[in-house]
Amino acid sequence: MARGTIIPTLQLLLLAVCCATTVVHGKEWTVGDSKGWTFGVSGWERAKRIQSGDVLVFKYNPSMHNVVQVGEGDYNSCKVSGPSRTHTSGNDHIKLAPGGKAFFICSFPGHCQQGMKIAVTA
Ligand SMILES: [Cu+2]
Fold it and tell me: d(Cα 41, Cα 35) in Å, to the nearest integer?
């Protein structure tokens, strides 16, 4: 291998490391990626390194869906019975507070059961 190819490779590596650490602070995640907040979105969050300070962006048609932040029990049962916070703009930006998990469901009848729920560890 020619010596000349080693240095550009190192520069690329350094660039990658630098940018990866920059992104860590306050990254925006569009929930469900291009599909948005919709049926079957559950599980989208699993492979993601979502951290406190990051922002979840929920995109949806507000006449069809909403976003309700709930406790773990309500997340599991798909029923809003405990403390909750409802978002209805259709383009909700929710910053994740440090410590523990955050649970989000759609409270329209049947939607949570059809996979409109995510659990994020921040
Ligand atoms: Cu819904």
Answer: 8
